[in-house]
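Page 37, continued from 36.
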């Protein structure tokens, strides 16, 4: 394990834990954005440039910003009063998560896929993927863009209606 990998791993895990445990919704989104950036750094370090840059563009550049705008437009950062930090549901959740982790780890470690020789992946460049996206798959790409735009406009309309209802 190299030093850059270890640094990225610690940063990604710490920001993922922070995204799950912080109480302020805006801080959770910012920690989630750091987690997305850490994942993109992993992809770039592994030589998957297209996936790494797609992670940056889509998740950091679009999804995280969309979540921030949704929080700001809907004023969702206001927290309800907290009663108690510990409940039996939390203990059950940790137990279920640990059981599932053990089960999946056992299945993965006993799998025959780990003993097979790994084939080299085909050499696919970012240019080839971009050519396919802008040629053969242009219609699905445009449909996804329209769908995300419609979702953003819908969120803004819903937020404006709620704001009018509270003031009127």
């Amino acid at each position: 394990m190299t030093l850059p990998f270890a640094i990225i791993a610690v940063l990604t895990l710490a920001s993922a834990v922070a995204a799950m445990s912080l109480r302020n919704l805006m801080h959770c989104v910012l920690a989630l954005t750091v987690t997305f950036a850490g994942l993109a750094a992993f992809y770039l370090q592994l030589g998957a440039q297209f996936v790494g840059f797609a992670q940056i563009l889509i998740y950091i550049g679009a999804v995280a910003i969309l979540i921030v705008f949704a929080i700001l437009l809907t004023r969702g950062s206001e927290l309800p009063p907290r009663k108690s930090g510990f409940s039996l549901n939390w203990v059950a959740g940790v137990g279920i998560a640990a059981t599932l982790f053990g089960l999946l780890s056992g299945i993965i470690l006993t799998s025959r896929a780990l003993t097979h020789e790994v084939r080299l992946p085909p050499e696919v460049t970012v240019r080839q993927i971009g050519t396919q996206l802008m040629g053969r798959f242009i219609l699905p790409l445009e449909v996804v863009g329209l769908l995300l735009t419609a979702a953003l406009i819908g969120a803004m309309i819903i937020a404006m209606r709620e704001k009018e209802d509270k003031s009127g």
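The helical segments are 3-21, 25-45, 49-74, 88-109, 126-134, 138-167. Flag for discussion at group meeting. The chain has a mean pLDDT of 84.
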